[in-house]
Automatic annotation (TrEMBL):
This is Endonuclease. Residues 1-21 form the signal peptide. Keywords: Endonuclease, Hydrolase, Nuclease, Signal. GO terms for molecular function: endonuclease activity. PANTHER family: ENDONUCLEASE-1. Residues 382-538 form the LTD domain. It comes from the Bacteria. Belongs to the EndA/NucM nuclease family. Residues 297-388 form the Fibronectin type-III domain.
């Protein structure tokens, strides 16, 4: 699994660590909306003394960006290897195809992708007539691969139609990290333009959008004097042409401000004395460019089909909704309960983290760029398979807990379900000092997964032990002490817990807990006997977890039953001759069926009423539970 580093502090960043927006920096814009707000923001960030208090003026540094990049554009977020962070080559979920060292790999001549890096003007120099300070403004000039920079040329940004990719020698399309050049898709939120566009990967689309919003605000008085550029509409107020405004608004919403952008904004403020208001206050985008509220909901999604079941996943496909502005994403509901948002306009998704041999019913709602929501789609149901990769209540669980000195607070979650699991439907919550309620949820980074027999590590941003093992940093969920409960939730239902909920008694203070290797599933009741105790700040086992099951534990995972849903007779398939107890409970927890078998058998369940039941299967001291639907 790719390690992500969002808050790691290094000597390189000490100079900018305190460079947040000064007090009252935006106070003169308070209460304003629409283009009046945009004009006021221009006065805050321009190079003119506008009589503001406080007054900060943009200080043009000329062609001296190289020194800034040594601070503002280093990779301390993904590989954490201090190489140049290039939005056209960074792979946020895997190994980068290539990397560049600051200074030594700067272009120069280039022939192919990965030769060297140079300066990419997100708003092309030709669009501003090579004017200064625009072409030296660090807020939109970033270091990128020279060949990809040349490939992008001065094309506008948009959504590429994969059937219209542009071919060019010396470079693949898409590029090595997935950026691409081609005809604009001209449908959905990117409708209205048919020319060639360049599309960065999803990780950096919001960054590009906020650079554009900054640029047309900072240079509001000059936009209408520049050469024709497809993304500009020739006005000073709205400035961005409708097709591209829809694209940038959608990217801004779907890719929120990252720690990388915050750090870069701070570094540039130290360098040229002005800030990007849309990084500091993302709401300004809506306040300015969506001043007339969009209250029209998208049409309902149609033709939803659930298919291709595995033990842990089901594919969904549907016909797209339409909207007066643009559809932005879809909400997925499982058995009538919200599960997750797709985060994009694709008309397919794979639902993961499901139980084996279980029937699920799905519906969808569409959401537009203003947050308006459609009605439900049609419902379609599908049953997961049972090929032995997962069983019953086998799921993700906490595998390590570090409550060490100072900010050394770390949580580890393990996956021994038999398949890779998406973290999109999982959250963590904290209950402090015996509080009878859970705090706000921590959500895992977008698109995060845990491979089978792998772990995911969340640590405090100031933790200083075993930092190479961290997958994410979050101070809120790791603000626990030895008397605070931490919960692992799936679809907002508690499945595993560390500590005693609604109790302020210390259970693990200044200590490290590692889940015993015999534990194979989560539990909603904390039992300290499931954990091995180690000294404070001990992280020898962090980043991996060992599971050693007994023969019974391993065998019970192979038990399956079918059909599900069932009408009259339920088949139980055993892979051993161990005595096996079959118990069926109704939705209220009442035992309605009980039988012991030692070989595969067929059970008569005709007497059960239609509804949902829980089947508990036990062998010796091990058991699994699965959901059964009776028609």
């Amino acid at each position: 699994m790719k390690k992500l580093y969002f808050f790691v502090v290094s000597t390189l960043l000490c100079a900018i660590a305190s460079a947040q927006a000064p007090a009252n920096y935006y106070s003169s814009a308070d209460g304003l909306t629409g283009y009046a707000l945009k004009t006021q923001l221009k006065e805050i960030i321009n190079s003119t003394n506008d009589g503001l208090s406080p007054e900060y003026t943009h200080n043009n540094q000329g062609d001296n960006l190289d020194g800034l990049y040594s601070i503002s554009d280093r990779d301390i977020y993904y590989e954490n290897d201090n190489t140049i962070l290039d939005i056209y080559s960074e792979n946020p979920t895997g190994t980068d195809p290539y990397t560049y060292d600051y200074g030594s790999d700067e272009c120069g001549n280039y022939n192919s992708e990965s030769d060297c890096y140079n300066k990419e003007h997100i708003i092309p120099q030709s669009a501003v007539n090579d004017g200064s300070p625009m072409i030296h403004d660090a807020h939109h000039v970033v270091p990128t691969d020279g060949r990809v920079n040349g490939f992008r040329s001065n094309y506008p940004f948009g959504v590429v139609d994969d059937s219209q990719l542009v071919s060019q020698s010396g470079i693949s399309n898409p590029t090595m990290n997935g950026s691409k050049l081609g005809g604009n898709l001209n449908s959905g939120y990117s409708a209205g333009y048919t020319g060639t566009v360049f599309e960065p990967i999803d990780e950096f689309k919001g960054d590009v959008a906020r650079m554009y919003f900054y640029f047309v605000t900072r240079y509001e008085d000059q936009v209408d004097n520049w050469s024709a550029y497809a993304m500009f509409d020739g006005t000073n107020d709205k400035a961005i042409a409708d097709p591209f405004l829809n694209i940038l608004l959608t990217w801004h919403q779907n890719d929120p401000v990252s720690q990388k952008e915050i750090d870069r904004n701070n570094a540039i403020f130290n360098y040229q004395n002005n800030r990007n208001p849309f990084v500091d206050n993302p709401q300004y985008v809506t306040d300015i460019w969506v001043s007339d509220p969009d209250i029209e909901a998208p049409t309902d999604p149609t033709n939803l089909v659930a298919s291709n079941p595995t033990d842990n996943s089901i594919d969904l496909d549907w016909t797209a909704s339409t909207d007066n502005v643009a559809v932005a994403s879809y909400d997925v509901y499982i058995d009538g309960v919200f599960a997750y948002n797709t985060g994009n306009t694709n008309t397919s998704t794979t639902v993961t983290g499901l139980l084996a041999d279980t029937n699920y019913c799905f519906t969808l709602k569409a959401k537009d760029t203003s947050g308006n929501e459609s009605g439900f789609s049609n419902q379609d149901c599908e049953t997961t398979t049972d090929n032995g990769s997962s069983g019953g209540d086998i799921d993700l669980f906490f595998s390590e807990y570090i409550e060490g000195s100072s900010n050394n607070k770390v949580l580890e979650i393990a996956n021994f379900t038999g398949a890779s699991v998406s973290l999109s439907i999982y959250t963590l919550k904290l209950s402090t000092n015996g509080n009878a309620s859970w705090g706000s949820p921590y959500t895992f980074p977008s698109s995060s997964t845990i491979a089978n027999e792998d772990v995911f590590v969340v640590a405090n941003g100031a933790a200083a032990v075993c930092t190479s093992e961290y997958d994410d940093l979050n101070n809120a969920i790791t603000s626990f002490n030895g008397n605070d409960a931490i919960g692992l939730f799936k679809n907002d239902v508690l499945i595993d817990i560390i500590g005693d909920f609604n109790s302020s008694a210390n259970y693990a203070q200044n200590t490290t807990l590692v889940r015993k290797s015999t534990i194979d599933r989560p539990t909603t009741t904390f039992n300290i006997n499931e954990w091995d105790n180690y000294a404070s700040n001990n992280c020898d086992d962090l980043g991996s977890h060992t599971q050693t099951l007994s023969i019974v534990d391993a065998t019970i995972k192979t038990i399956s039953f079918y059909p599900n849903p069932v009408k009259s007779h339920l088949n139980i398939s055993l892979k051993s001759d161990l005595e096996t107890k079959i118990e069926i409970y109704d939705i209220l927890g009442k035992l309605v069926f009980n039988k012991t078998i030692s070989a595969s058998a067929t059970l008569d369940v005709q007497s059960l009423k239609a509804g949902i039941y829980i089947v508990k299967i036990s062998q010796e001291n091990s058991s699994i539970s699965k959901r059964l639907i009776k028609n």
